[in-house]
Design goal:
It contains three helices and no strands. It is elongated, with a radius of gyration of 14 Å. Helices cover 71% and strands 0% of the residues. The protein is an all-alpha fold and 91 residues long.
């Protein structure tokens, strides 16, 4: 599950980076917004920091809770990818 999560995070960061290079696009996720001005590398740093924080919080949680957190993060990344693609198609 972690591999899928990391792939989705990278795709989300790449899609966001591409969208932010276009006029009238800005990062809507307030947690990621501070990392959105440096392009793909800083977006990856933002995702990595989020991953470290989630791991710290979930360190002593049961395996099912950790897997649930990973699944929720993966779904959030899919949502981010889809929303970015949708916003790039809008006039």
């Amino acid at each position: 599950m972690r591999t899928v999560l990391y792939v989705l995070q990278a795709i989300d960061a790449m899609e966001t980076s591409i969208a932010l290079r276009q006029p009238r696009h800005f990062e809507q996720n307030r947690m990621v917004r501070p990392f959105s001005h440096g392009g793909f590398p800083t977006l990856l740093v933002g995702f990595a920091l989020g991953d470290v924080v989630r791991d710290r919080i979930m360190r002593r949680a049961p395996e099912q809770a950790r897997e649930g957190a990973n699944a929720a993060q993966a779904l959030a990344n899919v949502d981010g990818i889809l929303n970015t693609q949708r916003s790039m198609r809008a006039p």
